[in-house]
Amino acid sequence: MVSFSLVYDILRWEEKEIINEAKKREINLNTLEIKNVNFKLDKNVEKSLKEEIFLQRCTSSTRRLFSTAILEYAGGQVINNFQTNLISSNKLLTNIILLKNRIPAPLSYVSFSEDSCIKSSEMLGFPLVFKPIVGSWGRFVHKIRDQYELKNILEYRSFLNSMYKEVFYIQEYVEKPCRDIRCIVVGDEIVATIYRYQANDDFRTNVALGGKVEEARLSDGQKEIFFKVKEAIGGEILGIDAMEKKDQILINEINSSVEFGGAAKVAGKKIVESILNYIVKKGKR
Amino acid sequence: METKYISCIECKGNIEVPDDAMVGELLECPDCGKIYEIKEVKNGKIDYKEAEAISEDWGE
Questions:
Q1: How many Cα neighbours within 13 Å face the side chain of A216?
Q2: pLDDT tens readout for residues A26-44
Q3: What are the structural domains of chain A?
Q4: Closest approach of chain B CAs to the CA of A43, in angstroms?
Q5: I need a labelling partner for A5 at 20 to 30 A (CA). Which of A72, A104, A266, A284 fits?
């Protein structure tokens, strides 16, 4: 019987779906609630896990990243691995990997002071999108129409006790057709592609913000780009987000603890089944 | 099976607990919206605490 451990901090709909689906099959699923775990870091840690499989599903990217580092050091096989978690949890690092692999992405500027950020905005032009390099669900992502708005955001931000506050990341505002594309990749297969529509008049399309979903039919060329992203970042189970800009797609974000409640409205049980099929296959190798 | 409830610390509202409730699961008070996290499920008893506030590194 294949065994694996689900690593989590908060139990979202997706984790429960995975647990309930595993119960229906001959899979021995253990749960590892990371907030109640004490790792003793001594010489016995190395290789102590003997290639056990862990499905990393923490909601906090910090917990996700560092618990993966420990589990890997202990010999565990973590889906997704440390490197994938490191890159995908950081928009700037993701941007660099995309550039390195000639994968289309929105034009971005990064700077390390408020004054430089203002200069970057003059080079990029308005409207633009201001994004924290860490975070999700569209949190603190702002569409900025002019320099006054930018200065306001910078002022508010200066009072926040925020991670990476000294990194200023701005991006071109893409005139997209009120939606973006979410592609869920499991192993070497695209298991779901959806359009996520903007909620009301918000420019963000996150399902967490109330955006509705619809099945997306992608061309082979578009699918090729998503596979290229998967190859570049090296992950096993990913949610890749893209925006349409005229006739091309731009990769916007990569999610290593992908939430698929929205996509499941279109793809049904296929996503959770594919995740478990993939783990079973990996466990039998 | 009898429906289980926990009591909201804030407003004393009744919060329904699903039969398959697990540690780490979040439950929202239908009356005041306060969110709780299940701390322990033992012999059918539910121990819960106020949920962590969303942190800036939370998400996918």
A1: 27
A2: 899 999 999 999 999 998 9
A3: 2-87+277-284 (3.40.50.20), 108-172 (3.30.1490.20), 176-267 (3.30.470.20)
A4: 31
A5: A266
